[in-house]
Amino acid sequence: MGRRPAHRGAGRRHADGGAAHPGPGAAAQRIRRRRAGRLLHDGRLPGLLGLDGARRQAARLQHHRHRIAPHRDAGGSVASPAVIVIGAGPAGIRAAARLVEAGLRPVLIDENERSGGQIYRRQPAGFTRPASALYGSEAAKAVALHAAADALAPRLDYRPGTLVWGIADGAVLTQRGDRLERLPYAALILCSGATDRIMPLPGWTLPGVYSLGAAQIALKAQACAIGSRVVFMGTGPLLYLVAWQYVKAGATVAAVLDTSPSRRRVLAAAALAARPAVLAQGLRYLAGLRRAGIPVLTGVTPLRIEGHGRVAGVVVSDRAGRERRVEADAVGLGYGLRSETQLADLAKARFGFDAVARQWLPETDADGRSSVPLVYLAGDGAVVRGADAAELAGRLAACAALRDLGHAVPEEEFSRLRAALRPMSRFRQGLENGFPWPGHLAAMLPNETIICRCEAITAGAIRRTVAETGAPEMNRAKSLGRVGMGRCQGRICGLAAAEVIAAARGVPVEEVGQLRGAAPIKPLPLTAELGPDEG
């Protein structure tokens, strides 16, 4: 079940393409549509190709005498390139720790204000809930990771609350508050994590619809539920975990609706048995939901989310083909996870189509090396295998970086880490096969269903673009029809849009190609100050 190599010629970047991730809570909000005002790394506005039809130079925001500030050390001098780790979740923390062990002082950049990542997300300052309430059976792992991160902080150049919005010319481009900065790297370890996979359906843009990740953030970070009567719908282990967490917190869960039939888990049992303790924990979550009297339906087909002004209920077709409606005022929606790969794309890493996950993923060797020298990937941003695997992969990628930079790393350490990851890779295949991404649902979506909510592009509009223009792949459809051109840059809509295009063309989804990224991967504030001239 390997990956099909990508061809850089087909589906290459377009100068028009750019957008960004709305964040987990965006599914609950109405999008206010305005003209794009984001900056590309050279100051141009997205969609402007350099010259207009009259051969005049395109509009450009002038930097005048200012440029992005260079990286400076504590004394104010321009610093030498360091090893940079992006992401302070399980993979990033363990990678940084291994670099520190070798005597380095790496730069650790994280978009969140506190380390831990999504799975071990910390509660805000002033909140005092015990770890057992936040993380359940994973509390000990969370506490250990947080303690390791806190102990590392004085030995790192730690930059929380900092967005990496681009990678170019051997440097990462960052933004924190109103300051932009350019940080050259000696080596780069990308630990960018993953986001929810979403399959749209009629009504999914109603207020009250959240991704599973957003529902989990509300519970962990703010100790609140997304609604008073919640339906969780989708597939994958996160579906059952978040539902169980809500029940444990005392919230009312109206139903758990799983698109994958139970027999898929039976067929995947051999691969799932590669991690018996994790499999047993998942079965305990399911048993806990059943003991609580929560209806759990498998093999359903989502039809629509109903409501006027906000969610009122969910309608699905069950395994027997009967329509069933569940009243609810909120929906948690998600179909597993997708690797966050846009930074790897900007770093010019080679991608391949992963037939197991039905996604384009960066190609790496066993130790996390990408196709680009001194650029490494670890954790769910490379392949979704969970937090335990992310910790191991982060350390392994750091070992690879150290060796490539000329540091001695025992071969035994490589062997031990590789061996520990093997059963996790097998388990991951079991999860993907047991809880498959329901790409086939895209062909059934009514034409009026919004796919790209940033640009209000419907399934019908995508189909018309394919039919009328012959757009053969994602980037052409983006250029001609604007799908994936908005704020989320295809993070939310990209996988579903690819399935719609594939169904319209009658081809396998891998033939639709990879949606390319462009800097900035997330919008930058126009108030951001550019640093002094680099000289």
Automatic annotation (TrEMBL):
Region (Disordered): 1-30
Residues covered by the FAD/NAD(P)-binding domain: 82-385
Classification via SUPFAM superfamilies: FAD/NAD(P)-binding domain
Segments forming domain BFD-like [2Fe-2S]-binding: 450-502
Skewed-composition ranges (Low complexity): 17-29
Pfam family name, one: Pyr_redox_2
Keywords (A to Z) from UniProt: Oxidoreductase
Domain of life: Bacteria
Keyword Oxidoreductase: yes
GO molecular-function term, one example from the UniProt record: oxidoreductase activity
InterPro entries tied to this protein: BFD-like_2Fe2S-bd_dom, BFD-like_2Fe2S-bd_dom_sf, FAD/NAD-bd_sf, FAD/NAD-binding_dom, Metab_Enz_Cyan_OpOx_G3PDH, Opine_Oxase_asu/HCN_bsu
Residue ranges, compositional bias (Basic residues): 1-12
PANTHER family (UniProt xref): ANAEROBIC GLYCEROL-3-PHOSPHATE DEHYDROGENASE SUBUNIT B (PTHR42949)
Protein's recorded name: FAD-dependent oxidoreductase
Source organism of this protein record: Falsiroseomonas algicola
Upper taxonomic lineage: Bacteria, Pseudomonadati, Pseudomonadota, Alphaproteobacteria, Acetobacterales
